[in-house]
């Protein structure tokens, strides 16, 4: 009995050490609990860093590339080349100050057009990823980027997110997306084309803002999950406005005037009943006003972008900070500076000095 108790405590301690991290929340990652195509149990290790807890180091995408051509690998969102989109992160609660968001780190996102044989960089965040002023709630961890204009179209393109924190831990999650053909679906004004998500509603209610990468000055309160809504075919209340900030909430895509105050926001492409649309528009308006307030308080990260052909973009750094990896970051007090960040780089807030990794 005494031995069993000690074993239980040891396992509990190991779980605590390995569970306080972040994972890709939107678009829903392969085997994620909010992925409408996940079958059976979701992956309980999505938050865990590679090499954690004595487990064998998984391959790219947490070892779930074998699902891409199955029903579990159906695309969860449709994006278009040149479109401005966003992703969000979510985490597990922990009392360890090194857990959860780890108060930052560095991230990179990219795509694979060959079923995971190679991954090319789209955008890099050197520092402040996840947002230091955010929490483990995905509504406080939103990052915007632009789909490369010449990214090849495909029904099952893999979107990848990687993260290296100051504790020298690496994590990677992937989502399957559709990249629409570059056939003029983007409007002449250069505004982003609307995204279409998977038809099955997410088990949880979450916000997906699509405008600014600035973190909120105060963590936003989580919304209580509502029962999943049955999809209802409705006509858009109006055409998608240009020069607008977009949000996805409770099955609706909504627009508000970009970076400005507004007395109202409009929702379209709703899967929610028409009778609830005005309530959703009210919620989106409050969320938009908070984002505008926070954007005014914070310095918008500096973005450097160049025109580089997709095939000429660097490969994503996937072998770092786990047993047997070819690269190792310096760790505290430095945040990782990706050695090959690609043409679209978002600078951090400068709170931690950046350092490139040692690679063999």
From TrEMBL:
PANTHER family: PROTEIN, PUTATIVE (AFU_ORTHOLOGUE AFUA_6G10930)-RELATED. It comes from the Eukaryota. Residues 1-20 form the signal peptide. It comes from Didymosphaeria variabile. Residues 181-244 are annotated as: Disordered. This is Lytic polysaccharide monooxygenase. Keywords: Signal. Residues 188-213, 231-244 have a biased composition (Low complexity).
């Amino acid at each position: 009995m005494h031995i069993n108790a000690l074993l239980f405590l040891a396992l509990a301690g190991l779980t605590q050490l390995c569970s306080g991290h972040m994972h890709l929340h939107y678009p829903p990652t392969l085997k994620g609990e909010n992925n409408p195509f996940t079958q059976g149990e979701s992956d309980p290790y999505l938050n865990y860093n590679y090499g954690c807890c004595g487990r064998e180091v998984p391959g790219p995408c947490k070892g779930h590339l074998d699902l891409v051509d199955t029903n579990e690998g159906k695309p969860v969102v449709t994006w278009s080349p040149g479109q401005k989109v966003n992703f969000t992160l979510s985490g597990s609660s922990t009392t360890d100050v090194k857990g959860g968001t780890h108060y930052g780190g560095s991230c990179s996102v990219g795509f694979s057009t060959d079923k995971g044989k190679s991954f090319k960089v789209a955008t890099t965040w050197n520092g402040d990823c996840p947002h230091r002023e955010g929490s483990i709630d995905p509504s406080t961890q939103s990052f915007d980027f632009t789909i490369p204009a010449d990214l090849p179209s495909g029904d099952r393109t893999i979107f990848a997110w990687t993260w290296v924190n100051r504790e020298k831990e690496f994590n990677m999650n992937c989502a399957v997306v559709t990249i629409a053909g570059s056939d003029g679906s983007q409007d002449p004004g250069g505004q982003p084309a609307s995204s279409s998500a998977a038809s099955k509603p997410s088990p949880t209610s979450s916000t997906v803002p699509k405008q600014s990468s600035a973190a909120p000055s105060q963590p936003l309160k989580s919304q209580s999950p509502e029962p999943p809504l049955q999809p209802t075919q409705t006509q858009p209340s109006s055409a998608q406005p240009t020069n607008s900030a977009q949000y996805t909430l409770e099955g609706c895509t909504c627009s508000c005037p970009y970076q400005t105050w507004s007395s109202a926001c409009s929702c379209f492409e709703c899967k929610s009943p028409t009778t609830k649309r005005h309530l959703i528009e009210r919620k989106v308006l409050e969320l938009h006003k908070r984002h505008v307030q926070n954007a005014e308080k914070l310095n918008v990260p500096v973005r450097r972008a160049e025109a580089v052909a997709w095939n000429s973009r660097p490969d994503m750094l996937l072998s770092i900070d786990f047993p047997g990896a070819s690269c190792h970051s310096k760790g505290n007090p430095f945040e990782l500076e990706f050695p090959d960040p690609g043409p679209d780089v978002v600078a951090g807030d400068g709170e931690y000095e950046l350092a490139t990794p040692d690679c063999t």
